[in-house]
Every structure is written in C-alpha cells, then in structure tokens.
Amino acid sequence: MSGDRGIFIVLEGIEGSGKTTQAALLGEWLEQLGVPYRLTREPGGTELGEAVRQLLLHGGSMPGVTELLLMLAARSALLAEVVRPALAAGEVVVADRYSLSTLAYQGYGRELDLAQVRRAIARATGGLTPDLTLVLEIPRPGGEARRVAGRRGEDRIERAGGAFHERVVEAYHLLADTEPQTVRLDGCGEPASVQARIRAALSRHFPETFTGKAG
Ligand code: T5A
C-alpha cells in the first residue's frame, strides 16, 4: 500500500494499448460496486497539467531533460491537487500512466541517465508509488493500427521515430518484470476481455476490496 487509505492503481503500456478505454471501463465497475474512485491521466489532469500537456504533445522540439522536467512538473501538480487528496479520502485512484511511463519514454526512449531520472521522479512524487501497476501488452503494430482506426493524428512523442519507440517497447518488457508491484496483462482481444483480466488481477491483489466482485 502507498501508506494512504485509498488504493493507487496505474494502467501503463505503449500508445494504443487501451489504457484510456480500460480506465473508463474500470470506472464503470467501481461505480457499480459503489467504490469511490478518481480517474486521472498524464500528462494532464489539472489546469497546469493540461497546459503542459499541450506543450509536450503539440509544441516544438525540446531537449530530453526539458521533456522530463515538464512531465514531472505536471505530475507534481496532479499529485498535490488530485491524487493525494483522493487517496487520503479513501478513494481508489485509477491513473492512465505514471512513473513507469517516465522511465520507459524519458529514461529508455530518450536515453537519459536512468539514475537521474529515478531521482527526479522521487523528487517530484515525494516517493509516492502505486499499489499496483498493470502493464497492458500489445504488439507495437497493433497499437499503431488502433490509433489509425481511431483516426487520431500523431503527436510530438509519437513522431519520435522507430528506434525511440522500439526502446520504449523493450523498456516496458523489462520494467514489467523488474519494478515492484507491477504485473503484465495481455491487452489483446476485445475490450471486455481485457477488462475481465484487469478485474481478476484487482480481485487477486486487493481481495478485501474486490474479492468475489470480478466480472
Ligand atoms: N509520456 C507520458 C511520456 O513520455 N512520459 C511520461 O512520464 C508520461 C506520463 C501521452 C504521451 O506522453 C508520453 C507517452 C505518450 O506518448 P496520450 O495520448 O495521453 O499521450 O497517451 P497514449 O498512450 O498515446 O494514448 P492512446 O489513446 O494512444 O492510447 P491508450 O489510452 O492506451 O488507448 P485507448 O484506450 O485510447 O485506445 C486507442 C484506440 O484503440 C481503440 C480505442 O477505441 C481507440 O480508438 N481500442 C481498441 N480497439 C480494439 N480492441 C481493443 N481492445 C481496444 N482498446 C482500445
């Protein structure tokens, strides 16, 4: 546990892995269960964070370390304004991306010094770690196909190039096996099937909150 009263759950994975879709479905389930919850996304989720998101996804080029610090500036605001108060109130927080993204994209993708990235994350988050991170795994062409099918254009980070994104994919494989409280989940198939896997994982990890409630 994070030391707060609520539960902090993070959905992670490459672009198009289905995080946003699954976060919404998870919200529906929590609603049905009568469990108070909050959905967040990164970068974004606060007024400042949404302004920073515009710069990060639709602004011009910037050094990798600038990108890192902007991601973390948005995160520190989100934690202060939304996540910590929700956890303190006993809510379940479902976050669409968190620190695993920073390790994967800025650490491995941009090839910044990993120890420095970890220190910067710790500084921005005050050491708040998720109770569980679920990495939705799909092959990279699958994520790309979903983006195209959804008629969404590429943002600045999606345009970073094939080698960058291959490093991100490899990073997620590695981090899913090595980071604490992190599990891989098959993100392929119909959204309802993926959601069933997520609910089963939550029931296993948090039996007091979810046991017998999957499905
Ligand atoms: N970033 C972020 C960093 O570099 N460092 C950081 O620290 C952080 C926090 C954020 C970008 O910022 C980077 C990573 C990203 O490049 P974003 O747009 O918020 O950008 O995040 P993306 O992951 O790019 O969002 P996507 O919308 O592309 O991916 P999702 O949320 O994983 O996928 P989702 O649910 O939106 O689905 C995408 C499409 O696929 C369909 C959906 O309907 C949608 O059209 N879909 C499915 N189709 C078939 N089968 C399924 N099971 C499907 N699930 C969804």
Portion of residues in helices? 55-70%
Uncertain segments of ≥5 residues (pLDDT<50)? none
Most strands sheet: 5 strands, parallel
Roughly what is the average pLDDT, rounded to an integer? 94
- CATH topology (level 3) name: Rossmann fold
Shape: globular
- Assigned CATH architecture: 3-Layer(aba) Sandwich
Number of helices: 9
For the termini, the CA-CA separation is 24 Å
The small molecules bound here are: P1-(5'-adenosyl)P5-(5'-thymidyl)pentaphosphate
Radius of gyration: 16 Å
Order of secondary-structure elements: EHEHHEHHEHHEHH
CATH homologous superfamily placement: P-loop containing nucleotide triphosphate hydrolases
State which percent range the strand residues make up. Answer: 5-15%
Content-based structural category: alpha/beta
Strand arrangement in the largest pleated sheet: 2-3-1-4-5
